[in-house]
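note to self — DONT lose this again. spent like an hour looking for the file last time. sequence + predicted structure for the chain T wanted, 185 res
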Amino acid sequence: MDLMTSYLPRYQFAQAHSLHVPAPPARVLAAAARPEVVDDPVARRLITLRELPSRLAGRLGLHSALAQRPAFGLAHFTPLGRSEEELAFRLAGRFWQADYGLVPLADAPAFAALDAAGLAKLVLNFSVQPEGRGTRLSTRTRVWCGDDAARRRFTPYWWLIRPASGLIRQRLLQRVRAAALAPDA
């Protein structure tokens, strides 16, 4: 069983993207694990746009839960684990809130044991499979809302951010591909 399925066997929302990389699977997965590869400037701009209303409110002297926080990024995703075929990350919170409502979790077992009532649990992965003379690199995102109230709140948020999320995932795959094919990889 893959890491994603073992930590989030049920989900209500999902997104998947993949591409072929003419490089060995181990090299491709190693590229996906490099922080500078997954730090995408377009993703940072989209996050800035998402956070703009709350940050502007803070600058105007109104309440802003983001006023003293760094911008959200992939660094907020914490590792679930790694195998020869997969690299998985986790996140839990109320993503529909301006501050994402993130729930700090000590480790993967804490994520697995988390009572998700009122929350959403998210797993993001990169996986590799040999394909022809290279690798099929995939990324999947799955979200489980712990109760009907969380699902009702998350659903419109999902439909709003899904196109940007898909663009970010596709760009991540392209960045991983470029890094895996770079001579110094």
